[in-house]
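Q: Could you write out the predicted structure for this multi-component system? I'm mainly interested in how the pieces pack against one another.
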Amino acid sequence: MLFALLVPLLFLAVFLAAAVRRVRVYDSFASGVAGVLPLLKSLLPYITAVLILAELFEASGLSALLSRALTPAFNALGIPAELARLVLIKPFSGSGALSVVSDLFAQYGADSYIGRCASVVYAAGETVFYLSAVYFAGRKNKKPVLPVAVAFFANLCAVALGCLFCRIL
Amino acid sequence: MNILFVAVFAASSAALLFKDAAAFLPALLAGAGKGVALGLQLAAVWAVWLGFLHVAEDAGILRGLSRAVRPLTGRLLRTKNEAALGQAAVNLSANLLGMGGAATPAGTQAMRLLGEEGNAFGEAMLFVIGCAGVQIFPSSVIALRAAAGAADPYDVYLPILLASLCALAVGVSLVLLAYALKKRLRKRSA
């Protein structure tokens, strides 16, 4: 598998290059790992909150109801209806989407068609509305309607095409 | 997200009251348990990649990458503003490497600088490219697949890459088209 080789080679190349340039690789790696703590501290509360919400949403039966309501629209685009929750949360929250993906893996298996599509929907594309709030923050002139609409449409294309690629690749 | 949270929470709680009120607290606790478990899984993934990226940064590899993409970014964003281009290059390479955390501060900085020179085209372009989410290696989802016991965690690499490249192509061409139309309209009215 070509991609399985990519990661070890990448690590090897970077570590050797660093060593040649007299970087203290062990110390440098460790100080990089230290960055996990603030990241975890800032994201864990949100991941947990979204998963609590997802569990409640599932238990209430509303999730099934919503998937059923959206099935025709998703079918028309060739997207499995089981991904409704993921497609809906993805533009707003990356950690929320990641939570839903891990939930879908547990439910359907990572190797299932649903699991593969979920992987693609999560990784191809970004949290459009969240990013627009951050990137265009503090802008006094008119709202960035055009860029956001374009980005949203492009991501929707990626979702539909990603599910198609999962079927044929 | 706050409105969404309250709305979904309230609707779900109300529905559950009618369906099975006793299931309320167990559902919350199950969700929290999943959240903490996922957090630990992610912490392991981040530990590996943040360590790796820090070594790459110290070795000057990230800086080299930023410099390599500069000619491309200048043409793409239609600006000669060095400061904005530098930030945009960091933003784009961090996005390519899948480090959203490093990409966002550079991205907001670049957007502010482009906004100051009134370059709405550059702003739209940078935003749409960032939103396509093209990554050389989508580490978190592949690591999550490995943790979930996928037979081949890498087998989604090609669909992910192709789908995000499609998003990039659609986004970039729509921005080009929209601003070409705007320019023509402005010319006609002038």
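A: Regarding packing and overall arrangement: The longest helix of chain A spans residues 36-59.
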